[in-house]
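thought: fold this chain, then report.
action: predict
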Amino acid sequence: MNPEPNRYPLRLRLPNALERALAALQEKGGVCRIVGGSVRDALIGLEPKDFDVEVYGLDLETISETLSKLGRADLVGKAFAVVKLWADKQEFDFSIPRRESKKGSGHRGFEIKPDARMPESEALLRRDFTINALLYDHSAREVLDYYGGKKDLDQGILRHVSPAFREDPLRVLRGMQFAGRFKLEFDAETAELCRSIRREFHDLPAERIWGEWEKWSSRSTSLAHGMRALQRSGWLPHFPELNALVGLPQDPEWHPEGDVWTHTLCCLDALARDTDWPVLPAPQRSLLAFSVLCHDLGKARCTRWAEKRGSKRWISPGHDTESVWLSEQFLGSMRAPHALVAKVMPLVGNHHFLNTVPEQGHSDASLRRLSKRLQPATTEELIYVMTSDHHGRPPLISERQDA
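observation:
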């Protein structure tokens, strides 16, 4: 017996070309449901950009033939049961329900079996999270919610739809970037499921790993939420440069917030809260997010208990220099673009520039030398990193950095 969905009224504005396509498919006897991110985004007040449609009751050939009368329609992946429509300079994906079964390793080892007669509730079981398993009925102007996705969205919870989640390990990193974008936290059972597939991380191609990190860095509203989700998932050890910061002590006089990992998350919060980072272009957001994330990686190699200012303290001399190559190693492990890495490294290596301010201030010559050292990054970008570092020691905010 198929479950009945919860229904929520929603007036989702659709492009004219999509309206025409839905009407044409419905006239052929199809039942159309908009699914996934566009429904999620509309529910939280964001303007949907990409529209994916699942069509029940029609085969791929009929869908393709019907859509070809409205624009350019290509059956681009019969194995994946997808037809693409280009109309009015826009692109839309139409698919029929399918079953997926794991046949090999990695995120691509699936056997796909399309079934246009599959019940909606069953078709949604292949989705990753409940917030992405929401359907929109354009005729009734209602959201159809079979698995509690709207409630999870309202409560800030990231929950898997079914045990099939474990068949695609990339979903853990998708969860990381969703957590950052929408300020979500993993449900306890979902976090445990993520931990149970930790070993499958090594089956993921580096470029797919980078794709999720890039979304975290450029689309997040709370970068720290994403990092907390990564830690809760048990996947932080796959990024040893970051994992080494957890529990790494700091001088409590200068860092009352706690260990280096906590400081890093506070700095990420400060970047989003205390600068205009949220409205910068995506490439610059990404650069600054990674620069702040990596700025103290070197502390894992430099921290020691030693004499300073007449008493024993935790100190990390030279950590800014060590952070440079560790940043390169971290970003290189997932094949981040060379242009981004080339900017992150000097920003990380010079984030303590203010510590060198003489009483009379820096000379024009020293500022010119700084500018040269930072290339291809800029002094303006360094200010974002230094501001985040200053404000990442709550409740302290000082005019000068010291650790």
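thought: worth noting. The CA atoms of residues 201 and 238 lie 8 Å apart.
final: tokens above.
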